[in-house]
Design goal:
By secondary structure, this protein is mainly α. It is built from 8 helices and no strands.
């Protein structure tokens, strides 16, 4: 009589390890330079388009007295905070022209966003900035007030050019834009980390990969 032996059968290992080896998750530094540049352009341009789409939206929790966050201003600050004056100013002007294309060219947003990009680039971040989130929120708050003030000044100058320089009308313009500036500054500073953190993290990775 034969006794059957129950030898331990060899278990088949899952093929997940083989698949992982075939398709490794390469770090950004090992990407081809052309691919890395292409992906960086897609991320940068895509984030601008997303901010443009969010600009006219009034989602729950993103509105204060009828004012929404200035997403393009947040993007300009996030871009300019670690770049030179030229890059910050050019980015602000381009995004201002894009905003004019979906709103109205008179008065233009290119002036206010261009100045925001230049002023943000001039900040001595190494000396004054400690925590990213807090500092970016403060910078966005101040720059939102500056941008709305410049926009209100443009309206005032246009009103003077057309002969409508009544004291009451100018007072009404500045009273309205004081409320707009405060509401825009509060909301934009609160939502600034949502735009700044992922973009800054991505741009840092790209910079380190280019230096490797």
């Amino acid at each position: 009589m034969k006794i059957l032996s129950f030898a331990p059968s060899k278990q088949k290992k899952p093929n997940s390890s083989k698949r992982r080896s075939k398709f490794p998750n390469k770090p950004i530094s090992q990407w081809h330079p052309a691919v890395r540049q292409l992906v960086n352009c897609v991320v940068t341009v895509g984030s601008v388009l997303l901010c443009l789409l969010l600009l006219p939206s009034r989602l729950p929790g993103m509105e204060l007295v009828g004012i929404a966050p200035n997403w393009l201003l947040i993007w300009v600050v996030a871009w300019s905070v670690k770049r030179n004056v030229f890059a910050g100013g050019v980015a602000g002007i381009i995004l201002g022209l894009l905003q004019d294309a979906i709103t109205s060219p008179n008065p233009t947003h290119a002036v206010s966003l261009g100045i925001v990009g230049i002023l943000t680039s001039l900040i001595q971040k190494q000396r004054f900035i400690e925590e990213d989130f807090i500092s970016i929120a403060v910078i966005v708050f101040v720059m939102a007030v500056v941008a709305e003030s410049i926009f209100g000044l443009q309206l005032t100058l246009m009103d003077d050019a057309y002969g409508g320089h009544s004291v009451r009308k100018l007072a009404d313009i500045w009273t309205y834009y004081q409320r707009v500036a405060l509401a825009s500054a509060i909301l934009s500073s609160l939502w600034a980390p949502v735009v700044y953190y992922p973009l800054n993290r991505w741009w840092q990775k790209i910079k380190l990969a280019q230096q490797a």
